[in-house]
Amino acid sequence: QVQLVESGGGLVQAGGSLRLSCAASGIIFRINGMGWYRQAPGKKRELVATITGGGDTNYSDSVKGRSTISRDNAKNTVYLQMNSLKPEDTAVYYCNAEVIHISFRKDNWWGQGTQVTVSS
Q: Which residues is 98 bridged to in the sheet?
């Protein structure tokens, strides 16, 4: 069993910033890619940003230039720094991790989500 726990969400005014964190724990052999997704009311879950084990990053067009994804492999933690927040960024943000187990089985694990609300 693997657990991903997000933190750092909250209420912020438009133009403000937030830094989200997601820490993975459990029986883990290795974590490859990690990413952030979000789901706004009435919309499906969408990709926000991803980062590979080697540090290569990818961002959705909606957050590119305003967000930075990073990771600390020693802590099994991924971060998302979001600046210049807009009301359209309001959503529940979820982290995801590609976990390889000792059996070489690969799974995708999701956190419980953290709410980000941006007021106008």
A: 108
Give the type of residue at 118.
V
SS (H, E, C) the chain: CEEEEEECCEEEECCCCEEEEEEEEECCCEEEEEEEEEECCCCCCEEEEEECCCCCEEECCCCCCCEEEEEEHHHCEEEEEECCCCHHHCEEEEEEEEEECCCCCEEEEECCCEEEEEEC
Please state the φ and ψ torsions of residue 41, each to the nearest 5 degrees: -55, 130
What are the φ/ψ torsions at residue 74 (nearest 5 degrees)? -65, -25
Q: Output the CA angle 69-75-80, nearest 5 degrees.
A: 15
pLDDT, one tens digit per residue, over 79-103 is 999 999 999 999 999 999 999 988 9
CA distances from 77 to 31, 49, 55, 64, 111 (A): 10, 14, 13, 21, 12
User: What is the chain's alpha carbon radius of gyration, rounded to the nearest angstrom?
Assistant: 14
Assess whether pLDDT exceeds 90 at residue 1: no
